[in-house]
Amino acid sequence: MILLINPPSAIKDIPDIPPLGLAYLASVLRNSNFEVVVLDLDLERERLAELPRLLADWRPDIVGLGGLTLQIENAFKIAREVKERLPRTMVVVGGPHASALPEETIHESLGGVDVVVTGEGEYAMLALAQGRAWDEIPGIYYRQDNVILRTASPSPIANLDELPLPARDLLPMHRYRGWGPLRKRPTVLARSSSGKNMDVEG
Q1: Considering just the CA atoms, what is the radius of gyration of the chain in Å?
Q2: How far apart are CA 25 and CA 121, in angstroms?
Q3: In what side-by-side order are the strands of the sheet with 36-40?
Q4: What is the pLDDT of residues 42-56, one digit of tens each?
Q5: What is the DSSP letter of 102?
Q6: Residue 179: how many other CB atoms lie within 10 Å
Q7: What pLDDT, on a 0 to 100 scale, did the predictor assign at position 132?
Q8: 175 vs 128, residue with greater confidence
Q9: Which of 17, 115, 173, 196 is the most exposed place for a label (fewest CB within 10 A)?
Q10: Is 191 exposed, middle or buried (CB count within 10 Å of its CB: 0-12, 13-18, 19+)?
Q11: What is residue 76's predicted lDDT score, i.e. its pLDDT?
Q12: HSE-up (13 A, CA, CB side) for residue 25
């Protein structure tokens, strides 16, 4: 089983939007018949206290953590807790902060992080789940014998249409606030190739 976690942010407001990056990872993994659970602990902060029990119950093979710089310290805390309770579980971190500072992310996790995935992480995460040798997976950093190694830079996904739609069903979509004039109305987030976000009323 693969557990994907969006860590709590240093800002304690209810998030406007779901963690689409994790939802895309979940859809790619699920399409390859992996069991996936997504926990948005930035939204459902009350579940943070449940994490030890959930780890004991689920015993995930991989824990994937994403996030911004405002989330990275909490990502490190969660990573170390996972390693303390489940030392054989692979802990993977991706997202903007890890992509910008991959070596620092491994160092500053103090042993909590096994692999950093940079850039578009869908296929790298799938390769890790499939058990491919780490040195054959483009776009990752990992520690080996106290040395941080990096693999070749990944090619961008040429055809974004080949990605399945994000697994929004694994998230409590009704709890996100939405943006601007559509806030508190039924909406879904779409992200364009320019990187801009749009709320679309449903």
Answers
A1: 16
A2: 7
A3: 36-40, 2-6, 62-65, 90-93, 115-117, 140-144, 147-150
A4: 999 999 999 999 999
A5: H
A6: 14
A7: 97
A8: 128
A9: 196
A10: middle
A11: 97
A12: 33
SS3 9: coil
Q: How many residues does the chain have?
A: 202
Cβ atoms of 117 and 93 within 8 Å: the answer is yes
What six digits make up the tokens of 155?
Answer: 């090619």
| DSSP class of 58 | H
Nearest partner of 117 among 22, 196, 194, judged by Cα? 22
Q: How confident is the model at residue 142 (pLDDT cuts 50, 70, 90)?
A: very high
DSSP 70: H
What is residue 198's predicted lDDT score, i.e. its pLDDT?
A: 46
CATH number of 2-172: 3.40.50.280
For 138, the token pair is: 């483009």
State both tokens at 114: 């096994």
Q: In angstroms, rounded to a whole number, what is the distance separating the alpha carbons of residues 94 and 62?
A: 13
Could you say which DSSP state residue 152 is in? P
Euclidean distance between CA atoms 101 and 91, whole angstroms: 17
Strand partners, 198: 190
Residue (of 105, 136, 139, 103) closest to 121 by Cα position:
139
Closest CA to 91 of 68, 70, 109: 109
How far is residue 60's CA from residue 88's CA, in Å, rounded to a whole number?
10
